[in-house]
């Protein structure tokens, strides 16, 4: 419950400040929400807040507004970066 409340406060604050914040900072109000939630409620509520914050930032502030569209090459970049990380971690 605490995770949802801190996420909601961060989202409302980000939407209210959207025109005043410089472009390129979609996660600005979500970082404190994740940190506070993790510190006060634990790891799993913090992870939930981080996931919800990432999805909300993607939907409202990144790329096409109010859309979860991906650029055509995005899945390829994810796979290649994951493969690169996997090969360097050995």
Give an overview in words:
- This protein is mostly helical and 90 residues long.
- The protein is 67% helix and 0% strand.
- It contains four helices and no strands.
- The chain has helices spanning 2-16, 30-41, 43-60, 74-88.
- The longest helix has 18 residues, at 43-60.
- The radius of gyration is 15 Å and the shape is globular.
- The termini are far apart.
- The model has no long low-confidence stretch (mean pLDDT 80).
- Distinct helical segment count: 4
Helix/strand-derived class?
mainly alpha
Alpha-carbon Rg, integer: 15 Å
Q: Mind summarizing the main beta sheet? A: none
**Tally of DSSP β-strands:** 0
Overall geometry comes to globular
Give helix and strand order, one letter per element, not per position: HHHH
Distance between the termini: 39 Å
Overall average residue pLDDT:
80
- The unreliable regions are none
β-sheet strand percentage: under 5%
Helix content: 55-70%
Short overview:
The protein is mainly alpha-helical and 90 residues long.
């Amino acid at each position: 419950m605490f995770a949802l409340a801190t996420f909601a406060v961060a989202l409302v604050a980000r939407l209210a400040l959207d025109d005043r914040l410089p472009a390129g900072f979609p996660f600005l109000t979500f970082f404190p929400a994740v940190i506070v939630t993790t510190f006060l409620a634990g790891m799993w509520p913090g992870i939930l807040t981080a996931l919800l914050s990432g999805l909300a930032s993607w939907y409202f502030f990144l790329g096409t507004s109010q859309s979860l569209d991906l650029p055509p090459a995005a899945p390829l970049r994810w796979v290649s970066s994951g493969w690169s990380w996997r090969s360097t971690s050995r």
